Amino acid sequence: MQSIPVDTSRLGVLRCAVAPEPKIADFETKQVKKDRDGNTIYTVGVTVRQQGRRVSVIEIAVPGEPKGIAEGTEVRVTGMEAFAWAMGDRHGISFRAAAITPAPAPSTTSAGAAGKGGGA
Q1: What is the pLDDT of residues 52-81, one digit of tens each?
Q2: Residue 112: which H helix or E strand, with range?
Q3: In Å, what is the CA distance from 36 to each residue of 5, 50, 79, 98, 104?
Q4: Which helix (H) or strand (E) is 113 found in, with range?
Q5: What is the homologous superfamily of the domain 3-104 according to CATH?
Q6: pTM of the model
Q7: Where are the domains of the chain?
Q8: What does the CA dihedral 24, 33, 60, 85 come to, rounded to 10 degrees?
């Protein structure tokens, strides 16, 4: 399977739509999926909205539990890759990332406050 790097800076605002959940490898035994290093793989539903376009939801797999991520949280995705897959007559694109973290809070600047209220 060929991986395709994804430039997340071109995806617009990314927000958690479904909080992190362990990925299930076997639904009968409820065994969770692990990576080569033994880390549990988690999936996070993320909304993607580029300027002027409708919202899409993608599911991203990530090793280890992302901390500080809840529904509605703006997130940053690091090292995202896309994979095309096919199984019989089914096909699609899956996504994985090295990490998903909360986006830094917007900083407040004194320039915005300077133009308000004061005058001579």
Answers
A1: 778 889 999 999 999 999 999 999 999 999
A2: helix 110-114
A3: 21, 34, 17, 14, 30
A4: helix 110-114
A5: Conjugative transposon protein, DUF961 (2.40.50.390)
A6: 0.81
A7: 3-104
A8: -90
